[in-house]
Amino acid sequence: MAQGQAALLLLADGRLPAGGYAHSGGLEPTVQAGRVSDAAGLERFLVGRAETTGFVAAAFAAAACERVARDDTAALSALESELDARTPSPELRSVSRILGRQLLRVMSTIHPHPHFARLGTVPHQPVVMGVAAAALGLGPRDAALAILHESVAGPAAAAAKLMRIDPFDVHAALARATERLDRLADAAANHADALASELPSRGAPLSDIAAEHHRSWNVRLFAS
Amino acid sequence: MRWSAKLSTLVPDKPAMEENSMAKTTPTNEHRALRIGVAGPVGTGKSSVIATLCRSLSDEFVIGVITNDIYTDEDARFLRSEGVLPAERIRAVETGACPHTAIRDDVTMNLIAIEDLERDFAPLDIVLVESGGDNLTATFSPALVDAQLFVLDVAGGGDVARKGGPGIGGADLLVINKVDLAEHVDVDVGQMVADAEKAREGRPVLAISRKRPETTSQLCDWVRQLYRAYVDGSHAPVDPGPMAPHFHATDDGGHVHSHEGGHTHHHHGHE
Ligand SMILES: Nc1nc2c(ncn2[C@@H]2O[C@H](COP(=O)(O)OP(=O)(O)O)[C@@H](O)[C@H]2O)c(=O)[nH]1
Ligand SMILES: [Mg+2]
Hints:
The complex is a heterodimer of chains A (224) and B (271). Chain A has helices at residues 5-12, 27-32, 39-69, 73-85, 90-110, 125-135, 140-162, 167-190, 205-214. Chain A has one domain (34-214): Orthogonal Bundle (Urease accessory protein UreF), CATH 1.10.4190. Chain A contains nine helices and no strands. Chain A is globular and about 45 Å long. Chain B has 271 residues and is of the alpha/beta class. Helices cover 33% and strands 16% of the residues of chain B. Chain B has helices at 3-10, 22-25, 46-57, 74-82, 99-103, 108-120, 160-163, 166-170, 189-199, 213-231; strands at residues 34-39, 63-69, 90-94, 126-130, 147-153, 173-177, 205-207, 246-248, 255-257. In chain B, helix 3 (46-57) packs parallel to helix 4 (74-82). At the A-B interface, helix 4 and helix 5 of A face helix 1, helix 2 and helix 6 of B. The complex binds guanosine-5'-diphosphate and magnesium ion. Residues 40, 42-48, 133, 177-178, 180-181, 209-211 of chain B line the site of guanosine-5'-diphosphate. Chain A: UreD, UreF and UreG form a complex that acts as a GTP-hydrolysis-dependent molecular chaperone, activating the urease apoprotein by helping to assemble the nickel containing metallocenter of UreC. The UreE protein probably delivers the nickel.
């Protein structure tokens, strides 16, 4: 169990220089639209994100980790298209690939591994997370947990810049979410060897619409 | 055009599994452009300095520009509207309100933006990277640029240069801009330059104004000289790094701080 914990912390650390700080995980347009305005609203947003797109990303990260570990490169390509199909917003597809490219750039530099050559130049972030986890000797559940952590820690870090909120309240929400993230990581890892087409497809339509609006703003703090 | 929109032209909306691995798209050092960072507080004239360099040097060098924006892509739009370079050679990176991080702790976005620019317009001679204006402590990482300018202006006060800090003390060139305004803000430019030279232990300082062509031509000469040194391999990149030890005057004659251990001190022009 304790095996690889340090590697997982490395991968999940927001200070990993992969450019995540420039994104709010959809929080900026949501705050602007008045749908989140206080700590309770932020907590609902974070839970919703973890349970929907976070969970889908986790299942794809787990599946990518499992496939690359057994050398099934063709299957990675299927994951890419299945994840596209689960991301209706063109903006969010693009953001996921930008973040994936950045993560690939960092991980292949700091921890070179033949696995990284199996990815294209602009792969989806969850797929890169799965491959990076495998390269670090981690398993599908670790990959799932890392991306779930990222899916809530990113918008949580952005919250202090976007709304009037006590940072302790932000982190209290993250603390309350830990058991949920563990549970979701278990569930996502159960899908690791499922057919790509059978992977979970939960969605958050309002986030997709918000991302499309956000991309057209002239003035914004975050890139997404 | 926004960066995200620009990038979407490079990011095919389909899997790119069959494409080359990252390493093949990354330009090798021998072919890559000289990368010059332009840092300094908001409004001191970073964009104007870049416009001047592009205007004066674009007959000699193929130049590309990356701007780092805080809220908007205004800097990129300003530079495109100046018409100093083909618009597509000026790209904006969105820094998520962390201009400091984007040039120092987490340079991945900027690095990818530079490499894309170099690949799309190969061969470029020089890439200029404008930092989103931050405070006096923000300097570029040596992982991102080969050399950097730090831009102050006389309107920020004659004392700023004396206060030092990593950018003022250690940048390859310190630019004191808008000297045409000195008489209106009661700044003695000669004194400000002397203070800066002292803080910089001999590294170069240029006092310039875009209204005085003889001063901006000195700036261009500095870049030409840097380029020659870069190409012949004699340019040694330096890192302004963390705060250098500095002196505080006190009643008992002062004491020296040494900022050890690589702490980042966020004093905003302290004292
Ligand atoms: N008087 C004077 N104004 C200048 C000079 N250079 C720049 N400015 C003005 O200073 C303001 C800020 O310049 P800008 O280049 O946008 O600064 P940045 O925020 O550092 O990029 C603009 O209004 C410029 O027109 C100069 O040499 N003299
Ligand atoms: Mg500017």
